[in-house]
Amino acid sequence: MLKIIEKTKIWFTMSLIIMLIGAGFMIYRGGLNLGLDFKGGTQVDIKMPKDFNKGDVDTIVKKYAEDAVTNTVSETVDGSANEVQIEIKSKSLDSTKVSDMFKELSEKYSLKQDALVSHDEIGPSIGNELTSSAIKALAVAVVAMLIYIAIRFEFKFGIAAIIALFHDILITLSIYAIFNIPVNSPFIAAILTIIGYSINDTIVIFDRIRENQRSMRRNTPIEIADHSLTQTFTRSLNTTLTTLLTTTAVNIFVPSVREFAFPLVVGMACGAYSSIFIASPVWVMLKNRTSK
User: Fold this and answer.
1) Number of domains in the chain
2) Which of 292, 290, 239 is closest to 268 using CA atoms?
3) Model-level pTM?
4) What counts of helices (H) and strands (E) characterise the chain?
């Protein structure tokens, strides 16, 4: 039988270290790296030859905007096999700089005038409104899940599940802070998706704990939790690996949805970890405190 609950301090310490490192980077950098959706800026889409050198393009782009991020989005919309479309995002590009940058790229790669697919000035379209809506959605989801779990199981299970959810969110935010990854609107959608995925895995484990409480009444909460985790560990691991492999493949091979897929990869891994190593130990702590 796995001895997971006995090593609770190790699991909590690992998560706390990541959160503290993330908090340190946030303080050092003055917060998260908010993308164009939150702060506004410029987005330019350009058709490039399929054999272009991304390093050379980055060098040219950085001359006009040091904060620019260049991504290869996909093959062109018209399906041309010899062209790909790149996306350039920056908070400091203006029309003059875009014109000069496109001219230099055109001279280097012999681009046609219609290679400049789009040039959009993006205002802070999301800003406070989307942030407020996301927080409200998160609050409603948390309250609804707490009520459901409290009715279906018991209130201690609900508290443990909510703590695990906040753990997943904080770890994901910490990863973004550590690696200075831009936070855009797909990130908000990914966070809400992660919550649903994580709570599903947690409920499966809690359901087994509830069943074992009836047949193991003479055992301690630690023994019940360890036995339940041993029974569900393989199932949780296989489910997580299957989902992670699929999402990771999407993140690697479909660049156009990478801003949504990457936080999913991080969040799903955190969700599987928290369901086993955070939610269950928290339930044991609450159970022991009630007994005392």
Assistant:
1) 2
2) 239
3) 0.81
4) 10, 4
pLDDT digits (tens, 9 = 90+) for 88-131: 988 888 888 999 999 999 998 888 888 888 888 777 665 667 77
**pLDDT surpassing 90 at residue 217:** no
- Band the pLDDT of 143: cuts 50, 70, 90: confident
Element (H, E) at 158: helix 155-178
Residue with tokens 């030859």: 49
Range of the domain at 102: 41-122
Q: Do 191 and 267 touch, CB atoms closer than 8 A?
A: yes
Helix (H) or strand (E) holding 151: helix 127-152
Q: Smallest Cα–Cα separation from 261: which of 187, 210, 170, 155?
A: 187
Residues in a beta bridge with 85: 47, 74
Same domain, 65 and 202: no
Helix (H), strand (E) at residue 185: helix 185-215
How many whole angstroms separate alpha carbon 212 and alpha carbon 223? 10
Last residue of a domain, one of 99, 122, 145: 122
Q: Please give the pLDDT value at position 68.
A: 84
b or e along 55-77 (b: 16 or more beta carbons within 10 Å of the residue's beta carbon)?
Answer: eebeebbeebbeebbbebbeebe
Beta strands 69-75 and 116-122 are unpaired
Lowest mean pLDDT among 89-103, 125-139, 188-202: 125-139
